[in-house]
Write a structure and sequence with these properties.
Number of strands: 0
InterPro entries: Hsk3, Hsk3-like
Protein name: DASH complex subunit Hsk3 like-domain-containing protein
Keywords: Coiled coil
GO biological process, one term: attachment of spindle microtubules to kinetochore
Radius of gyration: 34 Å
Structural class: mainly alpha
GO molecular function, one term: microtubule plus-end binding
Helix content: over 70%
Strand content: under 5%
Length: about 80
Amino acid sequence: MDTNNTTFKRPQPKLQPPLQQLQHYNSLNNQLTRLQQNMVNLEENIELTTEQLKNIQRFGLAHGAIFMAANRIMRNDTSL
């Protein structure tokens, strides 16, 4: 049998000093706060976009109605 001890040892994770750990948590907290604010902004933008889409649809309907009315007027003028 081989008497050499060739077992592999896992490296022990280095523990961060408390100050570094606190700074890391503070950084994560700031990033989370920013992410939360961005999510609120996204929600507001989505609501505004859906409202604008309703208005664009109404504008398109009005534009189509005006176009059809103008077409009818132009046809009647040329038939005289």
